[in-house]
Design a protein that fits this description.
It comes from Dyella marensis. The protein contains six helices and 13 strands. By secondary structure, the chain is α+β, with helices and mostly antiparallel strands. The radius of gyration is 19 Å and the shape is globular.
């Protein structure tokens, strides 16, 4: 091949690679493990560096977190200054657990955001029904990608955890599905969360009536399907999901990162690559 042709070919490959990277959207769901817990050797101050390092491995564009306390969010942004985060806690303030959403400021613009509660009164802050012990909520945002101005919605949630909460989880799924159904059909939607129930549940069935589960549909999968491991590294249940519509799922990965026997959380984070 003549040298000019080789140069042109190399430039074409380089341009295609840049375009592919620019067109990709990296999404992570990560249950942080609350700051309030008495975790001894797994306390936040002993794992916050590893938590940031785990995010740095993937460098996602957007992260839906659960159980996040304000200090944990601020500690993470201090270590990863390309990110910012937002969201009220489940009582509508900033003293308790947040469904905090992190995003890369160099990749995404926050167009608008809000929240609603999983209850019979979704617009009432901190409302509790369905037998829930704590308020359960959804934090959401409409993002615009800076390079091509394509938009997408992201919803992040944390369902109740007790065995007897299965009905509440199903009702929460129905409320989320109804809320998503009112969004513009042409705008993609991605849902992250700790759903505290497995894909065999009614809640998963309700949500996947209108959404796809990236773990089931992505052509490339890495790591275990199960995600909750209670700081043991041996996961027992698949409760952390990434659901979507209007995008293409290319790959999904469960990160099992650890250092010196310590894990960044009691959940493995899950990261998915999409084409928007």
């Amino acid at each position: 091949m003549p040298i000019l042709s080789r140069i042109a070919f190399a430039l074409a490959l380089s341009t295609a690679a840049v375009s592919a990277c620019a067109g990709e959207l990296k999404v992570m769901t990560f249950n942080v493990r609350t700051l309030a817990a008495q975790d001894g050797p797994n306390a936040w101050d002993k794992r916050r560096e590893l938590f940031a390092d785990t995010i740095r491995q993937v460098h996602p564009d957007v992260i839906g977190t659960q159980e996040l306390f304000k200090q944990q969010g601020d500690d993470t942004v201090e270590r990863l200054p390309e990110y910012t985060w937002f969201g009220r806690d489940r009582f509508g303030k900033h003293a308790e657990e947040h469904m905090g959403i992190f995003y890369r400021k160099d990749r995404l613009k926050l167009v608008k955001s809000g929240d609603f509660w999983l209850s019979d009164s979704p617009d009432k802050v901190a409302s509790i029904t369905w037998g829930n012990v704590f308020p359960r909520m959804v934090n959401w945002a409409l993002f615009e990608r800076l390079d091509d101005h394509k938009q997408f919605y992201l919803l992040d949630t944390h369902f109740p955890y007790r065995d007897q909460d299965e009905d509440a989880r199903t009702k929460g799924a129905r409320e989320m599905a109804a809320w998503i159904a009112r969004l513009p059909a042409k705008v993609p939607v991605i849902v992250t969360g700790d759903f505290n129930t497995e894909p065999s549940s009614e809640a998963h069935k309700v949500l996947t009536a209108g959404l796809k589960d990236a773990w089931d549909t992505a052509p490339k999968r890495e790591g275990p399907a199960k995600t909750f491991h209670d700081f043991t590294g041996q996961p027992t249940v698949q409760i952390d999901w990434i659901l979507y519509r209007g995008v293409t799922a290319n790959a999904i990965r469960t990160l099992t990162t650890s250092k010196d026997g310590r894990y960044p959380s009691d959940h493995f984070p899950v990261a998915a690559d999409f084409t928007l």
